[in-house]
Each structure stands twice: as C-alpha cells, then as structure tokens.
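Mods, move this if it's the wrong board.
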Amino acid sequence: MGRLHWNVLLPTLTSLLGFGFAVVLIRRFGRRRQAYHFVWALGLTWYALAAGSEAVGGAFGWTPILYRIWYLTGAIGVAAYLGAGTVYLHRESAFGSLVVVCLLVGSIPALAGRHVGVGLLGLSTATLLTIVLTWRPTLFAHVLFGLLGVFTLAAALQIFTTQIDITLLPTSQDEVVSGQAFDPQTRNQLWVLVRQLNEQEGVTIFLTTHYMDEAERVAQRIAIIDHGAIVAEGSAAALKEQTSTGTLEEAFLALTGTTIREEQGSGLDQMRNMVKMWGGRR
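Not the wrong board. Structure tokens:
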C-alpha cells in the first residue's frame, strides 16, 4: 500500500482547517452578531469546499461536476466573500471609496479586451455603489453583499452550463488542477486576454501548465521543472534545439525522462491511509 500523496493529503488537511475556522466564526457570529463573522465564515466554507474537491479529485479522479464545484467555490467564492467580510469590518467611507476604485480599475482590462460586457457590468456596479456611498453609506456593505449574491448565482449558472473538455482534466495525482478545462472557445478567449495584458499593458504573467502545446503557443520564456527543480529554461525554439526534437512535448520528455513513474497507491488505498492517520485501524 503506497504513501498518501501530497496532492491528496494537503488539500484534505486544508479543507478540514477551513471548515474548522468557519465553525469558529459562526459561533462568534452567534455571540456577537457581527456581520463580518458570518460573511467570512461563508468565504472559508467555499475555501474548504474547494480544497475538499481537490482532495477527492486527486484520490478518485476528476469529473465535470467536481471540477465545476471546485471552480465556483475556489476561483470565485473564496476571495469574493472574504473581501465582502472585510468591507463589513471597515465601514468607513474611505474604505468604501477604495472598493469603488478597485472595481473601476478592475474593469479596465475587460473593457480593453473582448469582454466589454463584463467591463460595463463592473462600471455599473461601481456607479451604483458610489450612489449608495454618497446618500446611504450605512447601507454600502449590505448592498455590496446583495450584489455579490446575485453575481455568484450568475457565475454558477455560467459555470454549470459551460462545456467541460474532459481531456484537460487532471489524469494523475502529480497534476495540479487549473481553470483551463472549459470548452476550447472559453480557453481561447482566456489566452487572448492573457496576450493582451502582456503585450498592451506590459504585465508579466507566470503560467503553470502541464500542456506543452499551450506553453509553446503563449509563453515567451519557458522553464521545465522536474522533481521540484528547473532542468531547462529558454524559449520553445531554444528548448527544441537543445534536445534536437520537433515539438515542445518531445523536448519535455527528453529532459525529464520518458518512463512512466510509479503511482503511489490507488486513490482508495490513499483514502484508507488517511482514515488510519486520523482514526487508527477499524
């Protein structure tokens, strides 16, 4: 029976901690009735669900529904709700003004790219919040939280109706899950936005991927990592020339080895090991 893989163990521990802290905050909310405790608890719950999804996916394999849950809770729920809780904590008008400015700045890349609708939504939200901040500042956090709930439902609808490319879901425990498994049109739009941010805004973007065709298409400089160490670095053309290969995929295999590495036990074995770690043998 193999060791419990880190990509199963760490998300499991993280999920348990997330749920634990969420319970603590809910109990504090029950005693003190501070809204930020409740909203932070929601954010930590989404965090725990995202980490738990990673653990289940690593142990038993990824499915489209599990991937969608991971994306909704981790990519959207965590930061949004933890941020909303901070708005409840800092009720000063100056902090509200900072939130509005951040929304305005965040709308710029969408307006500059092909996501004009998203950019206009950001501008509309900032305008509405400015009006609330001017006339009813005590309602600012409540309005923001209400808008966040509406946007979360809209995002969930989009995520659960968008096609998933199952060939891009992680297939081994060594692969790290990412948001690129949505349909090709969505991924292509993402790469267009990435290139625009890099070329037009001068933003340096670090991309982690296991798909060499995407790295070759969008990256100007590539570092190949094997067992936690950089084994080669340079442009796609330079790496192919260095290894006398025709594709970046072949260069990757030449630099890291073509043998299939032994898996460290099945997913079921690893979950059994985890139960033993926490509760002993049954």
